[in-house]
Amino acid sequence: MARRVFVWAAHPRAGSLCEGLAQAYADGARDEGADVRLLKLSEMAFDVGGFAGYGAPNPPLEPSLQAWQEATTWCEHMLWVHPYWWGAMPAQAKAVLDRALVPGFGFKYRDKGLLWDKLLTGRSADVIITSDTPPLWDTLVYGRPGRRVARNQVLSFCGVRCQQVRQWGPVKTATPEQRAAWVAEAHRMGRAAARG
């Protein structure tokens, strides 16, 4: 049976390196027989600023956010690819999480105490982050906040087992050969993900 893989290119600009990496990963997974859904943030339409917080009245989810939830529910494995802006993912990508990865979908707080139920267990994930900050500098000086948040405070919080969290950069000074190597590595990661 083909493994179900959801690939999210979480960069707001069409044609970005992140979209290229997401496409390479998706192609690699398909090469190994996976059933793949690819969703691009650059093609998603939703209200970025209309979220008032959990428990507050919020607008219903737009079709793009419903599609993101459906793909997350459907998949056995997912990849998120996003750039690293001010130590985090872009605001538009974060807005997807704020609005779609909500209590009752990604997690559910228990009535008493501080514990919660993880509602996305049984899934695994890879994350690729592109940055102008050299990854070693980001690790030694900043403590790799983007990688820690993705792994620990988002995916693991909801029960998703992270397999790989990669940060590639600096993009600003990368040669065409370096970018091609990243694309090739994303393709290899997609093939591995399809095999489980």
Q: Could you explain the architecture of this structure?
A:
With 196 residues, the protein is of the alpha/beta class. Helix 1 packs parallel to helix 6. It has a five-stranded parallel β-sheet with strand order 2-1-3-6-7, sandwiched between helices. Strands 4-5 form a two-stranded antiparallel sheet. The radius of gyration is 16 Å and the shape is globular. Helix content is 39%, strand content 20%.
Oligomer: single chain
In the sheet with the most strands, the strands line up as 2-1-3-6-7
Average pLDDT: 95
Helix content: 25-40%
Largest sheet entry = 5 strands, parallel
Shape: globular
- From the helix content, strand content and strand pairing, which structural class follows? alpha/beta
Radius of gyration: 16 Å
Number of helical segments?
Answer: 6
Q: Tell me the span between the first and last alpha carbons.
A: 12 Å
Number of strands: 7
- Weakly predicted, low-confidence segments: none
Q: What is the H/E string?
A: EHEHEHEEEHHEH
Note the beta-strand portion.
15-25%
Features:
196 residues; two-stranded antiparallel ribbon; 7 strands; globular
